[in-house]
Amino acid sequence: QVQLAESGGGLVPAGGSLRLSCVVSGRPSSLFAMSWFRQAPGKEREFVARISRSGDTTYAADSLKGRFTISRNNGKNTMYLQMNSLEPEDTGVYYCGASWTSDYTNTYWGQGTQVTVSS
Asked: Which residues of the chain have pLDDT under 50?
């Protein structure tokens, strides 16, 4: 059974940084194309970034490019999201997803980790 577990969220002042982690268990993470999404209070879940199985190809939402960086270490079955220059608008629950296919249709989701950015 595949499970995803996010960690690294917390309370940070505006301008600060956080690094989120997503650990894959049950199968090697190298089998999955993976992505990060987030959901702010009262809003729909939105795409943040995605990364190919090998990590060679990444893509981030246009509004987040330059501040957020996605990466992975398949030797540790872990995906990361480095978030810099955080803004209050980045507050929300951050979820990682794993897809068997290259279209990033996520089959598996983590439980989410809360990120709160204070102004």
From this structure: none
